[in-house]
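Exercise 7. Given the encoded structure of a 466-residue chain, write a plausible sequence.
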């Protein structure tokens, strides 16, 4: 049995959970069109759909809510929020948005023009959607190991510099508005990028006059993995490593619903004052005034407190260790999981777990349904459904990774919950031959289809036959 560290917090308030029967879960799943995303939360026992906005705030954050200044313009809470971002992330110009995708929208509208090209270390659905809606084509320049769930490469988030150079050479620097990097890389299973590779990537891009923007939603987790995997960083505090990750970049987009331990909010941070003024003008149109950006003052106060808590060594140690505990339990039982384990989630290789389910019947979506039916656990598909369709051909994209992601909220679940998840997924894997078919679309939305799509079993009334 892998070690499980004691949580560096104690419970002060509880939220009741309702256990359901398998019959109740099957009824709920059918009503949701075989899409766990459409389940009502009261029908879910352990919710690992996302770690975004599902964190438990601390007593200090709840206290900070009461200090919120709700002035429409120039609220004191904005300046508290601004100073926290400047202190821990190192960017001068801080523009609040309602959440991360608000920043993605603003940045894309500022810089992207039709016919341009954006390289990045693997796509993220909402990021790529904003880039494509503004006329750009995304190019994956991540290292090949990122697409191999069995590779033990410590930094699967690294950029393949030869791939990036090839994109620059093919399309020219003038056609590349920016390089889009993530730390960690969600779609690869929360895999980190090394400080050395990020720095080299920025040097290459900057030598061609191309700016680099970083998705910092889980950069604290990336910093912790750097501390334990990259030579020369073991004795550095996480806060210092976080600043080192941000230092070579030109700006960042942040969903404060992840590392910053908040339930809503985010920011766009920039170094270029002219670009910052342009972004503030668009924030006025799409988010709100540039000193609140769609957030209440109390939310900005809670985020500021959460930023400081996020780099606490005891917090981040326990957070990542909980993820590793789940991964080790599954790995030891023979469940095919992405290695090495990431910072915020464990991903099951659904293509390996359900090799008898064709890719066009969406094995990861099928496995997500089986996990819910087994024990009321909600994960999310990260494979062909999430990848969507090619905007030019209309054909399904079939990424090499076909994953069921189990994202663990911060400071929410105990060891007993994590053991329940492990036991349930081990049982599903043991009885995987009982899953006789996959799923087909019953209704398919145009964008980010994994959120709202409805499915039906490919053959018969159930994925278990009959």
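Solution.
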């Amino acid at each position: 049995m892998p070690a499980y560290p004691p949580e560096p917090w104690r419970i002060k308030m509880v939220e009741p959970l309702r256990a359901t029967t398998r019959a109740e879960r099957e009824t709920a799943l059918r009503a949701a069109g075989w899409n766990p995303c459409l389940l009502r939360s009261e029908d879910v026992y352990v919710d690992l759909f996302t770690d975004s906005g599902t964190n438990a705030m601390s007593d200090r954050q709840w206290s900070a809510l009461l200090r919120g200044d709700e002035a429409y313009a120039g609220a004191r809470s904005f300046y508290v929020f601004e100073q926290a971002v400047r202190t821990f992330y190192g960017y001068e110009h801080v523009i609040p948005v309602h959440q991360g995708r608000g920043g993605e929208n603003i940045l894309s509208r500022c810089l992207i023009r039709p016919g341009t090209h954006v390289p990045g270390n693997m796509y993220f659905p909402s990021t790529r959607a904003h880039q494509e809606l503004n006329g750009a084509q995304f190019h994956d320049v991540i290292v090949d190991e990122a697409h191999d769930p069995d590779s033990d490469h410590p930094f699967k988030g690294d950029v393949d510099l030869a791939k990036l150079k090839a994109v620059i050479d093919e399309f020219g620097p003038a056609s590349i508005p920016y390089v889009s990097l993530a730390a960690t890389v969600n779609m690869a299973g929360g895999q980190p990028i090394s400080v050395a590779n990020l720095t080299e990537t920025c040097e290459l891009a900057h030598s061609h006059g191309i700016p680099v923007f970083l998705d910092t939603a889980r950069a604290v987790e990336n910093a912790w993995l750097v501390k334990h995997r990259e030579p020369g960083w073991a004795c550095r505090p996480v806060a210092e490593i976080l600043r080192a990750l941000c230092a070579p970049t030109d700006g960042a987009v942040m969903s404060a619903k992840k590392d910053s331990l908040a339930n809503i909010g985010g920011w766009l941070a920039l170094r270029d004052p002219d670009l910052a003024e342009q972004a503030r003008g668009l924030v006025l149109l799409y988010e709100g005034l540039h000193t609140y950006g769609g957030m209440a003052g109390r939310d900005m106060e809670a985020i500021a407190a959460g930023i400081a808590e996020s780099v606490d060594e005891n917090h981040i140690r326990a957070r990542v260790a909980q993820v590793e505990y789940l991964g080790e339990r599954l790995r030891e039982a023979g469940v095919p999981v992405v290695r090495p384990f990431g910072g915020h989630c464990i991903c099951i290789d659904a293509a390996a777990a359900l090799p008898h389910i064709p890719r066009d019947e969406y094995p990861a979506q099928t496995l997500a349904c089986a996990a819910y039916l087994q024990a009321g656990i909600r994960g999310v598909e990260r494979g062909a459904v999430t990848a969507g369709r090619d905007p030019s051909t209309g054909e399904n994209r079939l990424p090499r990774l076909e994953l069921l992601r189990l994202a663990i909220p911060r400071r929410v679940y105990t060891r007993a919950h994590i053991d329940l998840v492990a036991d349930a997924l081990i049982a599903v894997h043991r009885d995987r031959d009982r899953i006789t078919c996959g799923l087909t679309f019953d209704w398919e939305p145009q964008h980010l289809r994994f959120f709202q799509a409805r499915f039906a079993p490919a053959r018969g009334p159930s994925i278990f036959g009959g």
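Remark. The first helix runs from residue 22 to 31. Students should compare their own answers with the one above.
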